[in-house]
From TrEMBL, chain A:
It comes from Rhinopomastus cyanomelas. Its main location: other. It is a lipid-anchor. Belongs to the calcineurin regulatory subunit family. CHP subfamily. One of its GO terms (molecular function) is protein kinase inhibitor activity. Residues 100-135 form the EF-hand domain. The keyword Cell membrane applies. This is Calcineurin B homologous protein 3.
From TrEMBL, chain B:
It is found in: Cell membrane; Recycling endosome membrane. NCBIfam families: b_cpa1. The chain crosses the membrane at residues 23-45, 57-74, 86-102, 114-136, 148-172, 223-247, 307-330, 342-368, 380-398, 410-432. Residues 639-652 have a biased composition (Basic residues). It comes from Rhinopomastus cyanomelas. GO terms for biological process: regulation of intracellular pH; sodium ion import across plasma membrane. This is Sodium/hydrogen exchanger. One of its GO terms (molecular function) is potassium:proton antiporter activity. The gene is Slc9a5.
Length: 204, 870
């Protein structure tokens, strides 16, 4: 239990909560597999559920300098993923904030970049948008595609500016991604409160 | 019979009668509104003044001045803010406006903080102020004339401590602090109404009963009534919001009264809540917040605009009148009695307790808030606690018999309101600047942002699910599912429900915005066009972009199609053809604009505008010079290709437009403007930049005859070297449309591939126009002999017109016949186009007249050609 990732400033109480939840999900195993997430009933309606679960097993999110997909994750990994969602703290200085922000964005970026090539290509973007819009059965795939195209256009215009005709915008790199997020306080949005967590017995 | 002077005799009929008495009331109302509105105009004449002094201050000062004049003239204060008028007529529009246009997401995200400040904060302020003043009174610091007990002071505290929505909105709208801060202060001012109303009523009844008769149950009742009033008011609001949404679902055939329903039902909600003494402000606020989503989806775009403007107008005029009358009312000295200790004490206490309350509450709230409110926010919140007309109206409503110190309270309230609105209102802006409060960044919403925010919501909800914590995101997610499944289906039209999606909405709006900005740019290009070609419609008519203008514009552009042959066509055909040209010009244009800008880019990135014009003129000139020859080159190459391989003419015939296109740039740019273009542009750009549609983008090497063609038009291609994007294949209809010549091939670019990014309803319009075009029986083409004969005749008339263009360069004119044999078919193809355009374009008539003199041999050439062809 003590071996949690060094940069997750979650209190021990929260870790205990999380550990209980982890055991609940893994059915008292040491690791969680993808199938374990199927047992969460509320997750079923989430349109981008696949992407989110995927992110838990994405090695890029788990530790630095690694790639690929893990088959199963242990509690430490679970905590690492959770630490992406911690809120900012009052006493952070500029540099910390910046790193913090980048970490969160990286997580998001990895979620979009499903083929791990460091770029969100149009096809990947389309997939995300399609999944996002899949909740609305009346919106056709075509419009999802055109929205993705439009978004990609916008991204290209933000990141590259005027483009030559032969120039091809292959996809959003992480730097471009950062550019797009300028002025939006992601750090104030992407967090979940672990503080008042109660173990959810009624899930089972 | 002339009515004699003096008392009118009943027998004689009167021509005119002085009826001031009948119209007096509405006339006065209208006059006051007019005065206030005119005053607003005067204020805004000077930017300097309004940027420093909030409008509310100016209005109060104006009111003071007017009140002084009335007092001086009539010797008594005639007008003042009547509480009844205020609560029944002036307040509802403002509250409805603020509720309806409240950013609901932001509001509900911060609802915890807002409720805390509204309920706890207001309670604290009331009691603390009341008790402190009472203490001051007991200490003997006040005038002995102030006959008031603890209950009186608590009553006064309750009415003076509530932050006023009207004043807050008036001042904060001009300050532009960040959204979170704004929504907290503003939300508080709206929601504290319930607390104020309850406290006011409870204490008022206590005062009326007298301290001796209050029993313990009365206190309990007071607490219970708080919940009843606030929750009841909210429930009434929700009920009416539901009704309103449901009604607008069925207004499809009575679009004209859609806005009326919104105003009526919201007002009825207000009155209903008032009737059963629930919190009417809460009722209207929640009615506005909750109905908006469904109502906006149901009503038409025009109704939406109407609602928006009417609401803003009503709210704005109410606000104006309220502040002006506050000023006027203050002049009425008979109503108030001054006591320095009370006034200063109240001012001091409300400022102090507000600050203390904010700091304490924020301290607690920050433990729960994810984005903590920092010191600076707290200062602004404390300082932004403005009091306003609600307090004034409430204090006027007090019963002098029961509340002995009413006159003192009135005076104090007026001073407090004036102090907060004028002094605090004036200083808050410098304060905000000085403290460097995070301002709201008014960046336009981007599609990516919207997409990511949606993704965020889902991610956060999912993480909460995984962690097993039922937090805010969890419930929000649940609510949205419920809304999607049941509420939206019940309250929205099927058509609206189907298309409703926030991402889609943003996408749609962005498209429209881009289109509008594009139209502006198009207008700029056109002004250059005007210099070069006097026959173009003027810039102003362009900006109006009425249908006739569009028709004319496209007409003027198309008159440059030289080969013109008339056919007998019905009116409908003409309209369709005109529409077709409008669509063609406007839908197709973006790509060309893109290229133009791209070529601009190549020459030099700076000085774009000047160069734009220059290039335009150069191109224009070159085009005039080489028009004839190039045209025939194109024609010949194409018809050759068609002759060679009749069935499969895709790749070859597509060559022509490439070369053609560049030279067309300036003309087409100037030709027409339509709002739907930018979506087109996006698509074309995206397809270009991302190479998504493999079949859609084919880069081909130029064939030989095109190279020749380039030689014939020296320089035109190096100005705009551009990629040649060739769509898979032109649709059959486009090829066979009788009024399209070589230019028609350009329209190929707007084939099915490119239309898909156009918003659905626009697509529909496009498809309709396409299908209507297809439905016109197109002339069979080369094979039908009689038709050619029919075509041949009008050439006599129309050909000269083309020649008139050429008169500038005689040499090219003489080239013409030699090319005719080859180009015969395409001439006959494209000719009706020009003919029809000419009918639409009376401007061209004079040119034609001039042209008549020109070579009469040409038609014969054509005739000959046709015969041989057959």
């Amino acid at each position: 239990l003590s071996a949690f990732s060094p940069h997750s400033p979650v209190t021990s109480e929260q870790i205990e909560h999380l550990h209980r939840r982890f055991k609940q999900l893994s059915r008292d195993q040491l690791t969680i597999r993808k199938e374990n997430f199927d047992s969460i009933p509320d997750l079923e309606f989430n349109p981008i559920r696949g992407k989110i679960v995927h992110a838990f097993f994405d090695k890029r999110n788990l530790r630095q300098e690694s790639d690929g997909l893990a088959d199963e994750i242990n509690f430490e990994d679970f905590l690492t993923i959770m630490s992406y969602f911690r809120p900012i703290e009052m006493n952070m200085d500029e540099e910390q904030l910046d790193r913090f922000r980048k970490e969160k964005l990286k997580f998001l970026f990895h979620m979009y970049d499903s083929d791990h090539d460091g770029k969100i290509t149009l096809q990947e973007y389309r997939n995300v948008v399609e999944e996002l819009l899949s909740g609305n059965p009346h919106l056709e795939k075509e419009s999802a595609r055109s929205i993705a195209d439009g978004a990609m256009m916008e991204a290209a215009s933000i990141c590259v500016g005027q483009m030559g005709p032969d120039q091809v915008y292959e996809g959003i790199t992480f730097d471009d991604f950062l550019k797009m997020w300028q002025g939006i306080d992601i750090e104030t949005k992407m967090h979940v409160r672990f503080l008042t967590m109660e173990t959810i017995a009624h899930c089972y | 019979p002339v009515a004699t002077s003096g008392p009118p005799s009943p027998a004689g009929a009167e021509l005119l009668r002085w009826q001031w008495r009948e119209v007096q009331a509405p006339c006065l109302v209208a006059a006051w509104i007019l005065v206030a509105s005119l005053a607003k105009i005067v204020f805004h004449l000077s930017r300097k003044v309004t940027s420093v002094v909030p409008e509310s201050c100016l209005l109060i000062l104006l009111g003071l001045g007017l009140g002084g004049i009335v007092l001086a003239v009539a010797k008594k204060a005639e007008y003042q803010l009547e509480p009844n008028m205020f609560f029944l007529f002036l307040l509802p529009p403002i509250v409805l406006d603020s509720g309806y246009f409240m950013p609901s997401r932001l509001f509900f995200d911060n609802i915890g903080a807002i409720l805390t400040y509204a309920v706890v904060g207001t309670l604290w302020n009331s009691f603390a102020t009341g008790i402190a003043l009472w203490g001051l009174h007991r200490a003997g610091l006040m005038d002995p004339g102030v006959e008031a007990g603890l209950m009186d002071f608590l009553l006064f505290g309750s009415l003076i401590s509530a932050v006023d929505p009207v004043a807050v909105l008036a001042v904060f709208e001009e300050v532009h602090v960040n959204e979170t801060l704004f929504i907290i202060v503003f939300g508080e001012s709206l929601l504290n109404d319930a607390v104020t109303v309850v406290l006011y009523k409870v204490f008022n009844s206590f005062v009326e009963l007298g301290p001796a008769h209050i029993r313990a149950t009365d206190y309990v009742k007071g607490v219970a009534s708080f919940f009843l009033v606030s929750l009841g008011g909210t429930a009434v609001g929700l009920l009416f919001a539901f009704l309103l949404a449901l009604i607008t679902r069925f207004t499809k055939r009575v679009r004209i009264i859609e806005p009326l329903f919104i105003f009526l039902l919201a007002y009825v909600a207000y009155l209903a809540a008032e009737m059963v003494s629930l919190s009417s402000i809460l009722a209207v606020t929640f009615c506005g917040i909750c109905c908006k989503k469904y109502v906006e989806a149901n009503i038409s775009q025009k109704s939406r605009t109407t609602v928006k403007y009417t609401m803003k107008t009503l709210a704005s005029s109410s606000e104006t009148i309220i502040f002006m009358f506050l000023g006027i009312s203050a002049v009425d000295t008979s109503k108030w009695t001054w006591d320095t200790a009370l006034v200063l004490g109240t001012l001091f206490f409300i400022l102090l307790f507000r600050a203390v309350g904010v700091v304490l509450q924020t301290c607690v709230l920050n433990h729960f808030r994810l984005i903590p409110l920092d010191r600076i926010d707290q200062v602004v919140m404390s300082y932004g606690g403005l009091r306003g007309a609600v307090a004034f109206a409430l204090v006027i409503l007090l019963d002098r018999e029961k509340v002995k110190a009413k006159d003192y309270f009135v005076a104090t309230t007026i001073v407090v309101v004036f102090f907060t609105v004028i002094v605090q209102g004036l200083t808050i802006k410098p304060l905000v600047t000085w403290l460097k409060v995070k301002r709201s960044d008014h960046h336009k919403p981007t599609l990516n942002e919207e997409l990511h925010e949606h993704a965020f919501d889902h991610i956060l909800a999912a993480v909460e699910d995984i962690v097993g914590h039922h937090g805010y995101h969890y419930w929000r997610d649940k609510w949205e599912q419920f809304d999607k499944k049941y509420l939206s289906q019940l309250l929205m039209r099927k058509s609206a429900y189907r298309l409703r999606d926030e991402i889609w909405d943003v996408y749609y709006k962005l498209n429209i915005r881009d289109a509008i900005s594009f139209v502006d740019q198009g207008g700029r290009v056109l002004s250059a066009a005007k210099l070069a070609l006097p026959s173009m419609p003027s810039r102003t008519s362009m900006s109006e972009s009425s249908v006739t203008n569009l028709l004319r514009e496209s007409g003027s552009g198309a008159c440059l199609d030289l080969q013109v042959i008339d056919t007998v066509r019905s009116r409908r055909d003409k309209e369709d053809a005109a529409m077709h040209h409008v669509l063609r010009g406007s839908l197709y244009k973006p790509r060309r604009r893109y290229k133009a800008s791209y070529s601009r880019h190549f020459i030099s990135p700076d000085n774009q505008e000047r160069q734009d014009k220059e290039i335009f003129r150069q191109n224009m000139k070159r085009r005039l010079e080489t028009f004839k020859s190039t045209k025939h080159n194109v024609c010949s190459s194409k018809s050759k290709a068609r002759l060679k391989e009749k069935g499969k003419k895709k790749a070859m015939s597509n060559k022509a437009p490439n070369g053609k296109m560049h030279r067309n740039v300036p003309w087409q740019e100037a030709a027409s403007v339509l709002v739907m273009v930018s979506s087109e542009e996006e698509e074309s750009d995206s397809s270009e930049t991302e190479k998504e549609d493999d079949e859609g983008i084919v880069f081909i090497a130029r064939a030989t005859d095109e190279v020749l063609q380039e030689k014939a038009t020296p320089g035109s291609l190096d100005v705009c070297p551009s990629p040649c994007i060739i769509p898979p294949s032109p649709t059959l209809a486009e090829k066979e449309l009788p009024w399209k010549g070589d230019q028609a091939d350009l329209a190929v670019y707007v084939s099915s591939e490119t239309t898909k990014i156009v918003p659905v309803d626009m697509q529909k319009a496009w498809n309709q126009s396409i299908s209507s075009l297809e439905s016109i029986a197109s002339p069979p083409g080369v094979e039908s002999g009689p038709q050619h004969r029919r075509f041949a005749c009008p050439v006599l008339e129309e050909q000269p017109q083309s020649a008139s263009q050429v008169t500038l360069e005689h040499s090219s004119c003489f080239q013409f016949p030699s090319h005719v044999p080859a180009s015969g078919r395409s001439q006959s193809d494209s000719s009706p186009d020009g003919a029809e355009q000419q009918e639409l374009q009376p401007l061209m008539a004079t040119e034609e007249q001039q042209g008549r003199v020109l070579p009469t041999t040409e038609p014969r050439w054509l005739m000959f050609n046709r015969a041989s062809h057959l």
